[in-house]
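Notebook p. 47: complex prediction with L6N33NVT.
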Amino acid sequence: MHNTDRMDEIKKMSNKGKTISNAKKAILLINLGTPDSYQVKDVRKYLKEFLSDRRVIEASSFIWQPILRLFILPFRSPKTAKLYESIWFQDKQLSPLMYYTQAQARKLADKLGNEVIVDFAMRYGEPSIKAKIEALSVQGVTEITIVPLYPQYSATTTASVYDEVFRVLQTMRYQPNIVGVAPYYQHPAYIKALKQSVLSYLETIDFTPDVLLLSFHGIPLECVQKGDPYQAHCLQTFELLKSALSETKLDIQVSFQSRFGPKEWLKPYTTEVLANLAKKGKKNVLVMAPGFAADCLETLEELKETERETFLNAGGQHYAVIPCLNDRDEHIEMLKTIIGE
Ligand SMILES: C=CC1=C(C)c2cc3[nH]c(cc4nc(cc5[nH]c(cc1n2)c(C)c5CCC(=O)O)C(CCC(=O)O)=C4C)c(C)c3C=C
Ligand SMILES: [Fe+2]
Ligand SMILES: [Fe+2]
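Predicted complex, structure tokens below:
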């Protein structure tokens, strides 16, 4: 057998579609995930997967699973389904989180050209991390750059993504090389994109904010006490954005939202801060959620609807929420920069 024939033979054997020589690279953006629809059964399925993740709820399964199935899912699913219905992009038949994540992958692909495949997956629900890693592997991809779309690291989010990635790899004979993009809570390109989004939003509103409140998703205080760096990462983002915006003279404050369950979560709670601001006579507030890469239930419903009511009922006058970075060009540029490094 000639050498070239032998090489071809080896290439064919090395597996379906994969070649030895040409390393094919892919980028996989990963966000939290969302139900398939706002029907109660789909929301229930999504909540079940999410709230069964031991990175999210650390309680022993023997105790937690019966509570989840008997109390949480039956009561929370219909309520959450209504909330999802209220924010759903009806014309696109997609949840906002799904719509923006798709758009981010598409626009990043346009920016990066043919050198690399860009795709996205969701930690919970569809498209799953498993389906996407397997599909990329069949296409002959030998290196996957994982981009968890969480600027601030938390075991509840970032670590859960990597847990799932490596669980999928456990079943593969020929594993792609995995490269992880570090949390970017302090990255100049991220701070710059946030700053630009504040400045351009300020142009569009008809009031002068007394306060710009940065609201991050909360986590249980216990997680931080056990070593989760999430709170420190959020506070670092807050400090950096505050200095970047010093010229605006805005009074910038920080809080944590979306508390779940009876335990203490990171404080101060967004809802309490907003009520107190209104009571103290700070009647014009602008809110921003820098921890969310895309608008979702927690921004479009919780911040834009529920917390608006909290604030106005406590005596507030003007209230607005800045959209997340979503598929803005600065955001896609930022993703390109952090992936390039
Ligand atoms: C129960 C514990 C939860 C922890 C801890 C938690 C951390 C956490 N979550 C996000 C980002 C998102 N969470 C979203 C929805 C959501 N979060 C929880 C619970 C916890 N999150 C629940 C039960 C839900 C579902 C909605 C509900 O029933 O309240 C979303 C929105 C998804 C969407 O489809 O729009 C995002 C995004 C972060 C960043 C985080 C820790 C840092
Ligand atoms: Fe007004
Ligand atoms: Fe959450």
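Notes: Residues 25-183 form a domain with the Rossmann fold fold (CATH 3.40.50.1400). The chain has two domains: 25-183, 188-329.
Next step: compare against the earlier run before touching the bench.
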